[in-house]
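User: I'm preparing a small set of examples for a lab meeting where we compare how different chains pack in three dimensions. I only have the primary sequence for this one, and I'd like the structure in token form so I can line it up with the others. Please keep the answer compact; I'll paste it straight into my notes.
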Amino acid sequence: MAGMEVQNVFYTLPEEEGANVYARAVDALGKHFAPQANYERHMFRKLDQSPTESVDQYITVATEIRDV
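Assistant: Understood. Below is the structure token output for the 68-residue chain.
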């Protein structure tokens, strides 16, 4: 059984004629609850420019973290 958060994600899936509902649900829920993506997003949002870091250096680091 799943909780309300899983149900909310499931009910927001668009209905597609002839699509395998189970496969779509597993794929969507897997993407939604993927811990790696959440960790990477956290690291990107946590990024802060140090006082000795130039804007170019900061943008380079931010781009590298974004592309992971």
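A couple of notes for your slides: The mean pLDDT is 82. Helices lie at 4-11, 21-32, 35-46, 55-66.

User: Perfect, thanks.
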